[in-house]
Amino acid sequence: MSESKKFLLNERDIPTAWYNIVADMDNKPKPIINPATKEPLKAEDLFPLFAEEVSRQEMNTTDAWIEIPEEVRDLYKIWRPTPLVRARGLEKLLDTPAHIYFKNESVSPVGSHKLNSAIAQAYYCKKQGVTNITTETGAGQWGAALSLAAKMFGLELAVYMVKISYHQKPYRRNIMSTYGAQVIASPSMSTKAGRKIITERPNYQGSLGTAISEAVELAMSTPNCKYTLGSVLNHVSLHQTVIGLEAEKQMEMAGEYPDKIIACFGGGSNFSGIAYPFMRHNLAGDTNIQFIAAEPESCPKLTRGVFQYDFGDEAGYTPLIPMYTLGHDFAPANIHAGGLRYHGAGSIISQLLKDKKMSAVDIPQLEAFDAAIKFAQAEGIIPAPESSHAIAATVREALRCKEEGKKEVLLFNLSGHGLIDMTAYDSYLAGDLENYKVSDEEIRRNTDKLEKII
Ligand SMILES: *Cc1c(COP(=O)(O)O)cnc(C)c1O
Q1: Ligand 1, residues 114, 142, 236, 350: which to mutate, most atoms within 8 A of Cβ?
Q2: Is 384 in the pocket of ligand 1 (CB under 6 A)?
Q3: Which fold has domain 5-13+68-111+235-447?
Q4: Separation of 62 CA from ligand 1 center, angstroms?
Q5: Based on the number of CB atoms within 10 Å of its own CB, is 223 exposed (0-12), middle (13-18) or buried (19 or more)?
Q6: What is the residue extent of each domain of the chain?
Q7: Which of the residues 217, 263, 267, 379 could staple to 271 if both were Cys, CB 3.0 to 4.6 A apart?
Q8: Whether the Cβ atoms of residue 450 and residue 306 lie closer than 8 Å to each other
């Protein structure tokens, strides 16, 4: 076995096609439906809002491989292929017989995996003659990635950022401005939705729901303008599969094969990205890898949510999506892993979970930070609070291996670094953070409100 620490590919090894797992699923996800008519949507129904090609990708249930455009692959070369790393330091610290590997997506210029889809989405907008794009951002990672992608393709980007984050978390706002995006504190006076809220509640500090309604309104009312989303949807997960496709080749270089694959879970894009390319071998009956999604204890849609049609957003503007959900009214605690505070999961993941092709665990906030500090001290990389949930789940598995005296190969996705989240670390080290366990009543209160379509 190799004593190497890092497994590196060449530019020519960047995948030439994304993997669309839906084509290989026996049990396809239920369709996305129109909330009024309950009729399944067609790709064309999404054209007013999204780029046409990503709308087609969203609905594609037949093509397992979708070619990555040359322009997109060229831009991926800025930081891809990303390294696969054997976490020997962490193995030693935990004194575990397990072999731990991680795919390091934190090396992208914006520090997370989100650029994989941002570049693809900006490309398809540009290709069909779109000049302006919009989005919303809470924690700011998606906004930062899209700001860079928009600049690369000469698109004007307006990012609606929840007002309280705009004022309290200036660094990602600064990053977006540096890349040339227009960042607007939401609610704003630039949309009808924003003006209405500001006149009714002048001191309102904003919410993701309001920011989405502003971004959508601007896209729908501006010629040549499209809206974009950084997680949850099928096409976003599709673009992220470059992670797993590269990791497959790199595990081969390492001469090992993963027994368990682990990733943190917000809307599911980085989990899908690392998991689906390996899962295709499980679906074909050739392997028996276990897939584990690590979600926060404060927002446990996969482990404690219901499987039902729900809106993708807080405000109820999107079509209805079949998903594991806590209800779109669910208000997650203000944990530091902002990117994991989402009420539902995408339709593909939800079907795979329902069919037991994968499993999920929920991680308390303090356990995530404890694992993050271990990882930082053992491997040198300060992980994003989101990624720390994957690390904590991996640590659990590695310690179980130790207890059972069993060697397993564990692979997790390091979705991003935490260098812009140091106030979170500061709070943790000062002892100011706590766990937030959700009560069954609270979950029921929100999920009982959902229309029983399934
Ligand atoms: C946005 C984000 C996540 C969560 O989103 P997914 O779509 O579930 O991957 C996780 N990690 C990082 C670093 C993020 O920026």
Answers
A1: 114
A2: yes
A3: Rossmann fold (3.40.50)
A4: 27
A5: exposed
A6: 5-13+68-111+235-447
A7: 263
A8: yes
